[in-house]
Amino acid sequence: MDIMANVLLAAGASPAMVHFKEEVPEFTPKAAAVVVNVGTLNTDFLEGMLAAAEAATALSKPWVLDPIAMGGTEFRSQHILRLARMKPTLIRGNASDIMALNGAQSSSKGVDSTAKSDDALDSAKSVAAKIGSIVGITGATDWVTDGSRCMKVQNGVALMSKITATGSSVTALAAAFIAVRPDDPLLATACALCAFGVAAELASTSAQGPASLRVGLLDALHYATQDDMLALAKISAGDDH
Ligand SMILES: Nc1ncnc2c1ncn2[C@@H]1O[C@H](COP(=O)(O)OP(=O)(O)O)[C@@H](O)[C@H]1O
Ligand SMILES: Cc1ncsc1CCOP(=O)(O)O
Ligand SMILES: [Mg+2]
């Protein structure tokens, strides 16, 4: 929760972490986008998540699902599937999450992926087509698809996978970008993944390990200019690996 909220602040968005269903009716109208992150799941949080997804849908607000550790337990999988069927604007996960969401037996031990993002692209396309959501997969290469259109992002550094909640943070950043460009959530998601990756690249020049990269990533997101983004962006359309 710390890094997610700070990533949003550094990027110019305004986070609020609201869990309980009692707050959903009043709070959702104030939000430009909603993130449902199942990372630390419990039955109270789950009620809040279902209510938030319903409220966002009813208000035609973009909402984004992070299906953390899909396939990890029966309880988690059942409820992630239920949320996914509510048709989020975007589902963003790692390769193992998205392959499990497409019905594959999960081989991951928990929140980290054991598969490559390139190998999950077909699963992402299939989930996107079945559900009608945009699907983003992160990893060494990030992919975003609506089932037919695809965008590829090749920014970022491998050390990002050694900082907990970088996945959740980039999901939240994608929600903020979609709030700005609700007409093109696929493009907005690709741009969010790219911006996050570029910030990590800028930070990595002075990082000594995961802890200093984590701090530097927040600084870089805050200080990066449009010129930095345009100079370093590696973003393209299509599904060529
Ligand atoms: N090997 C890698 N090279 C470059 N960037 C990476 C690599 N692994 C992860 N990332 C980046 O780290 C962020 C989190 O992705 P990932 O680790 O796949 O998510 P999760 O934390 O959900 O498993 C994304 O921005 C992704 O692009
Ligand atoms: C360790 C852990 N346990 C539940 S959520 C979480 C963090 C997930 O990390 P990420 O957001 O990078 O997938
Ligand atoms: Mg994750």
TrEMBL record:
One of its GO terms (biological process) is thiamine biosynthetic process. Its EC number is 2.7.1.50. It catalyses: 5-(2-hydroxyethyl)-4-methylthiazole + ATP = 4-methyl-5-(2-phosphooxyethyl)-thiazole + ADP + H(+). It comes from the Eukaryota. GO terms for molecular function: ATP binding; hydroxyethylthiazole kinase activity; magnesium ion binding. SUPFAM superfamilies: Ribokinase-like (SSF53613). Pfam families: HK (PF02110). Keywords: ATP-binding, Kinase, Magnesium, Metal-binding, Nucleotide-binding, Thiamine biosynthesis, Transferase. Pathway: Cofactor biosynthesis; thiamine diphosphate biosynthesis; 4-methyl-5-(2-phosphoethyl)-thiazole from 5-(2-hydroxyethyl)-4-methylthiazole: step 1/1. The keyword rRNA-binding does not apply. Its cofactor is Mg(2+). This is hydroxyethylthiazole kinase. It comes from Symbiochloris irregularis. The lineage of its organism: Eukaryota, Viridiplantae, Chlorophyta, core chlorophytes, Trebouxiophyceae.
